[in-house]
Design a protein that fits this description.
The protein is of the alpha+beta class. The protein has one domain. It is 18% helix and 38% strand. The longest helix has 13 residues.
């Protein structure tokens, strides 16, 4: 899940679509607008159910790792 291979959203946020346990998910990393922190969100592409991270991360790399950990926990 090398972030350099991810695409970008219209806002310039890194995004990737992947299959995990038969579910297609889209992961988006983002920078908070009012804080110098990063976060992630996960979207089930079939149901459009969106899950936001519950923590803030100091770097994009930390948010990337946390997003991957959350996906692997599914």
């Amino acid at each position: 899940m090398d972030i350099r291979s991810w695409r970008e959203t219209a806002n310039g946020n890194p995004t990737i679509t992947l299959m995990m346990n038969g579910v297609e998910l889209r992961i988006v990393l983002f920078k908070y607008k009012k804080a110098p922190d990063f976060g992630w969100l996960r979207i089930d592409t079939l149901t459009d159910k969106t899950t936001f991270c519950q923590a803030c991360y100091a770097t994009e790399a930390e948010a990337h790792q946390a997003a991957w950990d959350a996906v692997c926990a599914i």
